[in-house]
Design a protein that fits this description.
The chain is mainly beta. The protein folds into three domains: 1-124, Immunoglobulin-like; 125-247, Immunoglobulin-like, CATH 2.60.40; 255-331, Immunoglobulin-like (Sandwich), CATH 2.60.40.10. It contains one helix and 28 strands. The strands form seven sheets. Strands 1, 4, 5, 8, 9 and 18 form a six-stranded mixed β-sheet that branches. The chain starts with a helix and ends with a strand.
């Protein structure tokens, strides 16, 4: 029924468009639990009814050359008058766009809580410019994540995305169809917060243009226990996002399972286990990339965390000025 409504709504809008049109894909990437399902209106037409989080519409024709209004309303809306957000836009004839719902609608329970917005990218692609490659657009849509880099470590491609901040797009990147390993690092280029596999060859994406979204919360405990951070992919056909599998968190080839930490979450003290701490230093880095605590471990294996503010941190172990392993932990 939803697909029938989607097709009928876009047909109705298309009839009113006269001659100038633009291609548009709408993506729901607002991780607020209160916005898990929404209605999306084009002018006063409920075009995407019960549109779920981490879902994309297909690319469709919308009127261009004249102002239209894009609105996001609660899933139980009865008209556009119920909208939480309305954004007037004038699309260019013949252009292709991606419109992403981003941000928070709840008054409390989220930290930080940037307001709901529609982030619009022009110059979108429905296929790769070179049919032998895969074209990748990247959007940073995680509200509590800092500016990050995306570094490929499997085939040695290096830094693919440099200093991307929330709401920003970067790309397109044109890469061979292969299976890649990705590290999400803080802007210092060293501290890693997550790792993922990007199996482009396994998914058979040669010739495709895709968008990779940072989605969800790095620290769900500070965000109403909402959906956890991950990398998710949309294709021009739309539908549910495709989740990239989480890989091993590693730095310079040394994986995070070389040591363990407990308790995690912690309050006053963190214990490091499974590694010889005699000659190691440590740093604790917050999600803004700031070193909030550092020192020598020597023979001890405990670190006092009482002075840290609540939130998500990365503990780096350092040997001869080289980060050899890392673990995320939560301070309560």
């Amino acid at each position: 029924m939803k697909k029938l409504l989607l097709s009928a709504s876009f047909l109705l809008i298309g009839i009113t468009a006269i001659s100038q049109t633009a291609r548009v894909q709408v993506v729901h990437n607002s991780a607020d639990l209160a916005a898990a399902t929404v209605d999306v209106y084009v002018d006063d037409v409920n075009t995407l009814d019960d549109f779920e989080f981490r879902t994309a519409s297909p690319f469709v024709d919308l009127p261009a050359g004249t102002e239209i209004e894009l609105s996001v309303a609660p899933a139980n809306s009865t008209s556009v008058a119920d909208a939480l957000l309305t954004v007037p836009v004038t699309l260019m004839d013949g252009e292709t766009y991606i419109v992403v719902a981003y941000g928070i609608v709840s008054p409390t329970g989220y930290n930080p809580a940037p307001p709901l917005s529609l982030e619009i990218f022009s110059g979108a692609r429905e296929a790769a410019a070179d049919p032998a490659l895969v074209d990748i657009l990247v959007h940073h849509g995680a509200t509590d994540a800092p500016t990050v880099d995306v570094v490929e470590t499997g085939v040695g491609a290096g830094t693919l995305v440099d200093d991307i901040s929330p709401t920003e797009f970067q790309g397109y990147l044109s890469v061979p169809e292969a299976d890649y390993n990705l590290e999400i690092r803080l802007a210092d280029g060293v501290t890693q917060v997550a790792g993922y596999s990007a199996p482009l060859a396994t998914l058979g994406l040669e010739g495709a243009a895709i968008t990779v979204y940072a989605s969800g919360f790095l620290d769900p405990s500070q965000n109403s226990n909402g959906p956890a951070f991950g990398l998710w992919v949309t294709t021009p056909a739309g539908g549910p996002m495709i989740e990239l599998p989480e890989g091993t968190l590693g730095i310079n080839g040394v994986t995070n399972n070389t040591f363990s930490i407990y308790p995690n979450p912690t309050t006053n003290m963190l214990t490091v286990n499974g590694v010889d701490t005699q000659n190691l230093r440590f740093t604790m880095v917050d999600m803004q990339g700031r070193v909030v605590k550092d020192g020598d471990l020597f023979a001890r294996n405990t670190i006092n965390t009482a002075s840290l503010s609540q939130g998500l941190y990365v503990l780096n172990l350092i040997d001869n000025n080289r980060v050899v392993s890392a673990q995320k932990f939560i301070k309560e």
